[in-house]
Amino acid sequence: MKPSIQEPNPTGSTFSNPLPMIFHVDMDAFFAAVEVRSDPRLRGQNLVVGGGPGPRGVVTAASYPARRFGIKAGMAMGEALKRCPDLVFLPVDPSKMIFESLQVLEVLDRFTRRLEPASIDEAYLWFPSESSSLWVEKAKALASNIQTTMLMERGLTCSIGVGINKLQAKMASALQKPRGISVIHPNKYLEVFGHRPVGIVPGIGPKTQEVLRGQGVLTVEDLSRLKGASHFTEASEKQLVSFGLGLDERSVIPDSDPKSAGHETTFARDVADPKLLKATLSLLADRVARRLRVGRRQAKTVEVRYKIGKQRFSRQRTLTHFTNQSRDLLRVAWDLLEPARKGKPLRLLGVAGASLHSDTGQSSLVPVDNQLDDVTGIGDRLRDRFGEQTLLPATIYRRSKPKSRNPIGFQPVRRNHGNQ
């Protein structure tokens, strides 16, 4: 199926200075799509993934067939069942979704090192400045390449928005779903969004919309002309006008800088279960360790990052030796995290290795387990050949039913390895 492309602007339109391209990649019905890929019998079904089938359960994600009934994320399960009595329900499998989210990020990481995860199913990507004559065409080509790669390697589709900043890119990605590509020319923001309701702007929720409606502000263009509104502070009004004009000064910030290597994930809902948190941390530590080894680097400092409510925290510890082994990262990260969070649920969790140096194999001041290094090397070679899902941390398996031989429901993607 060929992706639809939103291009309301002629490529001949020019702008004075070369501008960067910001991509917002949004996985289509991510939780539901992962389940459908795991069990193709679910394809075409009115599927919802959520926190429980009872009246107090909440929909986390709905397949596109289910969305035809008006079912969406955040809706009470009881309401969803009223709208569609033959709804197919599956509980959220956090381990599976976190694993797949990391795999999605690894695909995107090949296109640009300047990659910022925004949530478990979306990310921003930055690409260098282009002249006006090439901007739109290069954006379309890159977006199409990303979609094709994601579909071939992960069996998942995504919608992509491209703009000159995060705001425009995120708004663009919502224009055509699923599997849409929407490129917003730098000079045409209001032409594309001006007539649309203010609710399309990220951060403007129902309550703010109601206040704006009382001020006669219904569209994005109305928002761009907002002045002297009685219900907003001067700073808030300035921010809203900026939204209306498509202005956004936020940079795309990678989850790690050159002096560190890290991975983090945002949960669909807050998690307090220590077993799940440790399983998640194990996956993240495994990815960081693998990344260090691929880059021939070792870390001497281990950092754990987490978010309680809206407040972000980090704890770190310097080791007596350098390492690129997941067991070291996990042990230290868990020792830092568990007493610090004091049983409180987390919205975000991450781990990083810092104070990096080149891996010469002679940096340890403590006895090295050569047998472990040999096993790790074998594991890395298996992953290189058969994919990252070939080996997973044991904690992921321990969280699964003993009878399951495929505990996270992952369907391996076959790769062509020539005559090896």
Describe this structure in words.
- The protein has 420 residues and is an alpha+beta fold.
- 37% of the residues lie in helices and 23% in strands.
- Strands 1-9-8-2-7-6 form a six-stranded mixed β-sheet.
- Helix 4 packs across helix 5.
- The chain is globular and about 60 Å long.
- Belongs to the DNA polymerase type-Y family.
At the fourth level of CATH, the homologous superfamily of the largest domain is DNA polymerase, Y-family, little finger domain
Q: Describe the biggest sheet?
A: 6 strands, mixed
Give the averaged pLDDT, no decimals.
Answer: 81
Number of strands: 13
Helix amount, in percent?
25-40%
> Helical stretch count?
14
CATH-assigned fold name of the largest domain: Dna Ligase, domain 1
What's the domain count? 4
Strand content: 15-25%
